[in-house]
Design goal:
Layout: E1 5-9, H1 13-24, E2 28-32, E3 44-47, E4 50-53, E5 59-60, H2 63-71, H3 76-79, E6 82-84, E7 87-92, E8 98-102, H4 105-116, H5 120-142, H6 149-153, H7 155-162, H8 173-180, H9 184-191, H10 211-216, E9 220-223, H11 228-240, E10 244-246, E11 251-257, E12 260-266, E13 269-272, E14 275-278, H12 282-289, H13 299-302, E15 309-317, E16 327-330, H14 335-345, E17 354-357, E18 372-380, H15 388-407, E19 415-421, H16 423-430, H17 447-450, E20 462-464, H18 475-488
Parallel strand pairs: 1-2, 1-14, 2-10, 7-16, 14-20
Antiparallel strand pairs: 3-4, 5-9, 6-9, 7-8, 11-12, 12-13, 15-18, 15-19, 16-17, 17-18
Helix pairs in contact: 1-11, 1-18, 4-5, 5-7, 8-9
């Protein structure tokens, strides 16, 4: 059989998955990565005996990872193992309320009822609605291209379109949640899911209420080797299939002749290919790699509002806290004000919601004996030229105060070492425009339809995968973007 050649720009999780799928199809695949390591946002940091997963810290839908091994006729367990969490996350509210979000729906409903008085039946009904949205949208909006006529000619798509009122696209997420629940703490609990794709619950459509279903129905997991083992195991699978990775290989341009992608230029050399798949943020793909072809730029898409970004402190902590778990959330007392700061003021609120991930709870060698590795993250606006040094210093003080108050101990005295990731370094390390983590925001009803397609409509042989294109950001959706690309090829 003749080996067609595929080039993939960027070894992010979607790029690696696309490489695997194309290799299985018989392509000779070469992946070009600007960094010296694979994974994009899904990388790791080591410092003073502490190891941190640098980016995504929650694993849902692991079946999409397993599927890649099965496609290649390999046993997933030979490469990658994970465990299901009985408690998804611990929640701490400013008024002292504490909630354990159990994976089991009944137990979870009882726990919310115990902590807040919210009737358990409201929680059960809400999660059933979340499942309903998933069942209507999943096959159509997530697993296929929204930009291909074939999708819309299928009967299940037509059925889904008739059910569109049930996906609640015309109300804001917060509005829907406030209608479902009596207790403000429960509303805040479910509003938080908007942040899973960098959106604002007061503006994003209630369709995003599908997200709790992914967590409560399919479960949350922890990979045995930490989150970075996802990257490592998929790179190993790709290499076993003959995929070549070239690191420290920043691509300069995508070569387009007569509206056909012919390959790339990298370090002054032309590499010819039959197809090119960009796993780089679409903004940079056009502005940097296709800058000679301004007529090809989708101006509307490139000017869309970007998702929020993150400020992450990686702290080595010289103590263990038994009341903390793998995932912990310390809520802001005023959620609306916090989102207003992020989106309207482009600033950081003085009382931010803090997400604290501690992988050493399950992978003990991630921290020295008697210590913990704290991944401390808050949602922040994308980089629009703010004075980040000042913002970071203020945020650090506010987070110290907030966590110290909640845990009854001065956290600042326990920090053995610190690394920081902020919107500027997210942009420079992962080529994410303005440091926005999920590409464009989902703050409008039609955001799902407005994301960039997985195939260029103007250049033959040019495809796109990753968090900045359809179907969206986060590990499961990035893996699905690779699947859509391989089906279009």
């Amino acid at each position: 059989m003749s080996h067609k050649k595929a080039i993939i720009i960027g070894a992010g999780i979607a790029g690696i998955a696309a490489a695997i799928r194309l290799a299985v199809k018989g392509y000779a695949v070469e992946v070009f990565e600007a960094n010296s390591y694979p994974g994009g946002k899904l990388s790791e940091i080591e410092q003073n005996g502490y190891r941190f997963d640098a980016g995504p810290s929650l694993l849902t839908m692991p079946q999409y990872i397993d599927e890649l091994f099965q496609l290649a006729n390999k046993n997933p367990a030979d490469y990658f193992r994970y465990q299901k969490l009985a408690v998804v996350c611990h929640y701490f509210y400013e008024d002292g309320t504490r909630i354990n979000a159990y994976a089991d729906t009944e137990k979870f409903a009882q726990e919310l009822n115990r902590a807040t008085g919210e009737p358990a039946k409201n929680i059960i009904k809400y999660l059933a609605n979340s499942a309903d949205i998933y069942n209507i949208t999943n096959h159509v909006f997530l697993e296929r291209s929204l930009h291909s006529l074939q999708t819309f000619l299928r009967w299940d798509t037509v059925r889904s379109i008739f059910k569109l009122p049930r996906i609640d696209a015309f109300r804001a997420m917060h509005q829907a949640n406030a209608g479902y629940f009596e207790d403000a703490r429960v509303v805040q609990f479910f509003d938080r899911y908007a942040t899973y794709n960098g959106s604002n619950p007061y503006e994003a459509p209630a369709t995003l209420n599908v997200i709790p279903h992914l967590e409560h129905h399919f479960g949350a997991y922890f990979p045995d080797g930490g989150m970075y083992s996802i990257t490592k195991s998929l790179v190993k699978l790709a290499e076993d299939l003959g995929v070549k990775f070239r690191y420290d290989a920043k691509v300069d341009e995508i070569v387009v002749i007569n509206k056909i992608a012919k390959g790339i230029r990298v370090k002054g050399e032309n590499v010819v290919a039959d197809i090119v798949v960009s796993n780089t943020d679409v903004w940079f793909t056009y502005k940097n790699l296709l800058q000679k072809h301004p007529a090809l730029h989708p101006k509307k898409i490139l000017s869309q509002e970007r998702s929020s970004s993150a400020l992450i402190f990686y702290w080595g902590i010289k103590k263990q806290f038994p009341e903390l778990d793998l995932h912990n959330i310390f809520f802001s007392a005023d959620y609306k004000a916090e989102f207003n700061y992020i989106w309207q003021e482009q600033d950081i609120y003085h009382d931010p919601t803090v997400y604290l991930n501690i992988s050493s709870k399950l992978k003990t060698d991630d921290a020295p004996y008697g210590c913990e590795n704290w991944f401390v993250m808050i949602n922040v606006p994308a980089n629009n030229g703010q004075d980040w040094d000042v913002l970071i210093e203020n945020a650090r003080q506010n987070i110290h105060l907030k966590l110290s108050k909640a845990l009854g101990e001065d956290i600042s005295k326990l920090i053995a070492c610190e690394s920081i990731l902020d919107p500027r370094s997210i942009e420079s390390k992962t080529s994410s425009y303005k440091g926005s983590i999920y590409g464009t925001s989902s703050n409008s009803q039609f955001a799902a339809f407005l994301r960039h397609a997985n195939k260029s409509s103007k250049v033959n042989g040019l495809y796109f995968c990753g968090g900045s294109v359809h179907p969206g950001g986060g590990i499961p959706l990035c893996l699905l973007s690779a699947k859509i690309v391989s089906e279009m090829v």
